[in-house]
Amino acid sequence: MNDTPGTPLDIADEHGLNEEPGLAEAAVERIDHHPIAALIGGVALGALLGAVFPVTQKERQKLGPLGRKVTDKAREAAHVATERGKAKLDELGFNRDNAKAQADRLVAGIKDVAAQARKTVSKDDDNTPSA
């Protein structure tokens, strides 16, 4: 018996999954053209099956440490991404201090415009003849 894995088409033939002519070829072609979508679909299907079937004690023993390691690495990656994102925003000038300064300038500008509008209305009232 040959230990090397066959092509997806050979595997489909071996398991009797090639009953519909062209179906396996079409599936393989789609996977070849969209490998990321196939990967995402596979992960989603695995997650769905994992949610439907209960976890056995043996799975807990074997996969528990791996799950903790994956969770720790994901948490670490998220932390690094957050810190790098903050640094990049700060480098670009998007930080709390700049935002506060811009908000203060905006409020001061609005107050100036309001004051000018009051003066203009007040002058107009003074220049308007009484009836």
For this entry, give a set of tags:
131 residues, mainly alpha, 5 helices
Topology:
Elements: H1 8-14, H2 23-33, H3 35-52, H4 57-91, H5 96-127
Helix pairs in contact: 2-3
3D structure, described in words:
The structure is a single chain. This protein has five helices and no strands. The protein has helices spanning 8-14, 23-33, 35-52, 57-91, 96-127. α2 (23-33) packs across α3 (35-52). The mean pLDDT is 79.
Oligomer: single chain
> On the 0-100 scale, what is the average pLDDT?
79
- Parts with pLDDT < 50 across at least 5 consecutive residues: none
Please work out how many helical segments DSSP would assign: 5
User: What is the SS-derived class?
Assistant: mainly alpha
The Cα radius of gyration reads: 33 Å
Shape, per Cα inertia axes:
elongated
Major sheet summary line: none
Approximate strand percentage: under 5%
Number of beta strands:
0
Fraction of residues in helix: over 70%
Summarize the structure.
With 131 residues, the chain is mainly α. The chain has five helices and no strands.
